[in-house]
Each structure stands twice: as structure tokens, then as C-alpha cells.
Amino acid sequence: MAPNMEIEDWKVSGISRTYPSYRQHRPITVESWLEGKNADDEAEGLWRINDKLYDLSDFAARHPGGAFWIESTRGTDITEPFESHHIEERAREMLSKFEVREAAKPRNYRFTLKENGFYMTLKRRVREKLRKLEYSPTKKTEFLHLGIVISLFLFSWAGTVLDSLLIRALAGLALCWVATSTHNYFHQRDNWRMYLFNLSMLNYRDWRVSHALSHHVYANSLHDLEMSMFEPFLCWIPGRQYASKAQRWLSIAISPLVYVALLQIPIIVRLISSIIKKNTMQWDHLIGFTLPVFLYFTTGTGLKASLLSWQIILGIGSFIFGFVGLTAAHHDPRILHDGDAQREDIDWGLYQIDTIIDRGDIKWSDLLVLTHFGEHALHHLFPTLDHGVLKHLYPELRKTMKEFDLELREINHWGHIKGHHQQLLRINKNPLPPGSKKFK
């Protein structure tokens, strides 16, 4: 897959020199995104950090975070993930051991990470805060997560035995919450909890790419795999070339159907691709079938009833997951999307702030923060930190934002729901860069 050098003038990303190669082929998948990134990133088959190339092949098995993060990113630019995933300096100090040479060409991405810039300034302060911070909040997160997982099996069992739609709906909510709370763990080093994400029929491996390596780094841009995978059904990028006004109205009408199918479509696509092309199924895909097997062996209702109950729970959970996830923080006409005017200095941390409006209505509850993608700005800036720790970093965030004349924007969920639909309909690009006027 080679970069297309002759493209229409509208096929331009504000954060990179080239139009993403992966968007030129359908279907868009995790594998095609990584393949396109290999073609675009000028990493010469190695690992690129800023303007240097490193060979991390022999280090992968020893990587404290797990081999996946290294093995899956070979041939790509990992500058921003490297900085945001390693708050302490130890990883940077080790880099020289693996240095191969200077990169032959400039970086594809326009982000800056200057030592006196917003992100690196905030990172230094967070590093100092974490050294003093009591990590007991992580214990509460683990307790909440375990309780959610147990509630999923209890509600699923009770809903199936009693043939109760209401209890199945509670099981669907619990399934959604298992996925959203386990999202806290697949960002981190390998751990047993990350596998529980697969109970939703999604796969933590795929989401480490589509969410952690793509969306978290290139949010709201053409490089954001999570956005591209929804096209042509949902399109948040402004411009008639990406979706007409009629298509955008249609997307609002069909969005509930998209939500309902969200948890099952990825594994169906992967299964079909594995049959007709190359097998990409992993053993942990089977974890998704734990719930129906559990219902079959414990409820005594039979195979058909167990499968039907599971499908009802899965459909309800999928709808809630899609609804909550897509209205969490990123889509509103006041939020930066690719095509809108950018700041002159695209500091990576500033870019994250510009692509988010936080939910202010859930900050009072650790449970809601964990299950509704709360503390979203801080989570994007420091994705490997436990959600229970993030709230303790607001003094450092606010101090740094004040120095750089930034606002921490917040609205409630209803505001996000309205903004999400307005963004789906938005065709005109914002001509003013972020920060040009105060948030209302």
C-alpha cells in the first residue's frame, strides 16, 4: 500500500503531510490501518521516535508493558505514544541502546513536543505529583470493576431464568459497563483484566490499535481509525466530499441501528476476512462466548433460550455502549475536527485539549467516571494511568492550562448528545482556530 501522491485538494489532513493511505481501501480494518501507517510514517521498517530510528526487535519480549505494544508498531512512528505512555524518564534513558540512525525523511505528523511546550511542561508536573501520590485509588477501581463483572453474570442468569426483559436490560447495562470499565485496563501493561473486555465480543487487541494507538493519538482526524471505521454510516468530518447533507441526515436516522450492531460487527467482519483471506482470529476471541456458555450450563433453559437471551443482552449492551461512547467527549461543532482551522503550534497536548469537551456532570462519582469515559482530557493526555488517579491531577492540569491561556471545557451529557447530532450534520469547516474565543 503506497501513499497516493496525486490526490484531490480536499484529501488533506491538518495534522500530517500526507493523506492517510489506509483510507484509500475498503474495508477499513486494524490491519489495513497498520499497513497504511507503515507506508506513511517514514520509519524504514523500524520504530521511529521524533527524527531517529530504533530497532526494538530484541526488546519486545522484555518490554514491561508487554510485547504487543512493540510488535504491533514495527515500521511506524511511535513518538506520541512513547511520550504519553512513559511518564517516568527511564524509558527515554534506555533508548540510546537501540538507536540505529537518523531518519532519512522528516516526520509525517506535524505535532510538536517541545520541552517548554504545554504537554511536556504538564508531564513534568504530573511526574512529580505521581511520586508523591498515594495509589490507593487504583484499589477502588479494581473493586468497582470486579463488582461490575459479577453483576453481569448475575443479571444475565436471573434475566434468563425469569425470562425478564427488565433484568436482561440491567445485564445489558452491566455488559456495557464491563467494556467501558475494562477500557481502563487494556491501556495499561498486560494484565488479566484486559481479557474481560472480550466479554463484549469486541477484542482488546483490536482496541489497543484502534483506540489506544490511533484514536488517542490522532483524535478527530483522518488518521483516527475509530472515526473512519464508521463511514459511510456515520461521518463527523466536515465537508460535502466526505458526506452530503442527505447522507448526514440519514446517519442520524440509522444511528440507533448502528449502536445495536456495534459489538457484533467487528468479529463478523474478522471472521469473514479470516475465511476468504488470511486467518487473523486469536484464541481470546473465544472469551466473547463465555456468557452464552455460562447461561446454557447454569440456567437449564436449553440452548435456544440461552442464545436468545444472550443476543437480547448483547443488543441492549451494544446500544448503550454505542450511545455512551459516541457522545462521551469528542463530537460537537465547537470541538476541533480535521479540516477545521488549527493552532499555529500544534503541540500534541494542546491538540488533545482542542478535540475534547469533558463531561462535568459525572465527576462526582468514581463509578460513572470509570463507566462513562470520564476525566476524558486527562485520560487522553496520560492514558496508562488508572482512572481513579486522574482526578488527583487537576491542580497540575489547571496550573499548566492557565500558563498557556487554555480553558478546560465541560458540559453535561445532554449537551454532548445535542452536540453529537449537530456535528454529524456539520458540513462547514470552522475558520477560527481553537482558543480564538471563549467557550460558552
Q: What descriptive keywords fit this protein?
A:
5 strands, 19 helices, disordered N terminus, globular, 3-stranded antiparallel sheet
Summary of the model, kept short:
With 440 residues, this protein is mainly alpha-helical. It has helices at residues 30-40, 67-71, 79-85, 90-94, 118-132, 137-161, 165-186, 204-215, 225-228, 245-261, 265-276, 290-299, 303-326, 348-354, 366-371, 376-381, 387-390, 394-403, 413-425; strands at residues 47-49, 52-54, 99-102, 358-359, 410-411.
Low-confidence stretches: 1-7
| Number of H/I helices | 19
Tell me the helix content.
40-55%
| Largest β-sheet summary | 3 strands, antiparallel
Rg over CA atoms, rounded to whole Å, is: 22 Å
Helical/strand content category = mainly alpha
- What proportion of the residues form beta strands (DSSP E)? under 5%
How is the largest sheet built, in terms of strand order?
1-2-3
The count of DSSP E runs of length 2 or more, i.e. the number of strands, is 5
- Overall geometry comes to globular
Oligomer class: single chain
| N-C termini distance | 44 Å
Secondary-structure element series: HEEHHHEHHHHHHHHHHEHHHHEH
Average pLDDT level: 94
Q: How is this fold's topology laid out?
A:
Elements (H helix, E strand, L loop, with lengths): L29 H11 L6 E3 L2 E3 L12 H5 L7 H7 L4 H5 L4 E4 L15 H15 L4 H25 L3 H22 L17 H12 L9 H4 L16 H17 L3 H12 L13 H10 L3 H24 L21 H7 L3 E2 L6 H6 L4 H6 L5 H4 L3 H10 L6 E2 L1 H13 L15
Parallel strand pairs: 4-5
Antiparallel strand pairs: 1-2, 2-3
Helix pairs in contact: 5-18, 6-7, 6-12, 7-13, 10-13, 12-13
